[in-house]
């Protein structure tokens, strides 16, 4: 069984996918591990599309049961037919931004206050994530995600990001059994 969990940054996709993997025999793959080179601060240098696709495809096909977290809607046509279940998490912007600010505070600590580069990275990231609900934004957005969801043929489970994690896990595992 192959599952994709995706949504806006801060909606809880990585948390849910990791939790499902922990409670089952699924291997969790996070797209950030394929999309970004390891840097300090993190998430500054992209891996080329060809390399990240090849690496993700190799890891994806090595396992019978895989759960991927992250948006791959622009990674190629082959991903539209690769999954047995797609889980889409939506969380309103104010709650997502609250989560993202907290995550960034934990990630960077005092660097978020004292390091000019880290502050700018954070400000740019937050500005980018705030555009998710803007229908005219051409980057990762709700409109782009909705179009991609309409193009796939497997079952889609839509989840409210405000649901408790245990309930979301239960809904995913129940959908897998059906």
Low-confidence stretches: none
CATH architecture: 3-Layer(aba) Sandwich
CATH topology: the name is Rossmann fold
The total of beta strands comes to: 5
What is the string of SSEs from the N terminus onward?
A: EHEHHEEHHHHEH
- Mean pLDDT level: 94
Cα end-to-end separation: 12 Å
Question: Fraction of residues in helices?
Answer: 40-55%
Largest sheet: 5 strands, parallel
Number of domains: 1
CATH homologous superfamily title? P-loop containing nucleotide triphosphate hydrolases
| Tally of helical runs | 8
Describe the structure.
This protein has 178 residues and is α/β, with parallel strands linked by helices. The chain has a single domain, classed as P-loop containing nucleotide triphosphate hydrolases (Rossmann fold, 3-Layer(aba) Sandwich). It has eight helices and five strands; from the N terminus they run βαβααββααααβα. Strands 2-3-1-4-5 form a five-stranded parallel beta sheet, sandwiched between helices. Helix 1 (13-22) crosses helix 8. The protein is globular, with a radius of gyration of 16 Å.
């Amino acid at each position: 069984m192959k599952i994709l969990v995706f949504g806006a940054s801060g909606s809880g996709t990585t948390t849910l996918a990791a939790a499902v993997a922990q409670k089952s025999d699924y291997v969790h793959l996070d797209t950030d591990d394929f999309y970004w080179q390891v840097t300090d601060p993190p998430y500054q240098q992209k891996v080329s599309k060809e390399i990240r696709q090849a690496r993700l495809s190799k890891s994806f096909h090595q396992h019978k049961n895989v759960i991927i977290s992250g948006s791959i809607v622009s990674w190629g046509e082959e991903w539209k037919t690769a999954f047995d279940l797609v889980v889409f998490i939506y969380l309103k912007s104010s709650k997502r931004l609250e989560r993202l600010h907290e995550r960034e505070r934990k990630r960077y600590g005092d660097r978020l206050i004292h390091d000019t580069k880290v502050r700018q990275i954070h400000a740019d990231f937050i500005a980018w994530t705030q555009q998710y609900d803007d229908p005219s934004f051409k980057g990762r957005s709700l409109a782009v995600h909705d179009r991609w969801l309409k193009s796939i043929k497997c079952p889609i489970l839509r989840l409210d990001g405000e649901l408790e994690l245990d309930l979301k896990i239960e809904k995913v595992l129940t959908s897998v059994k059906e």
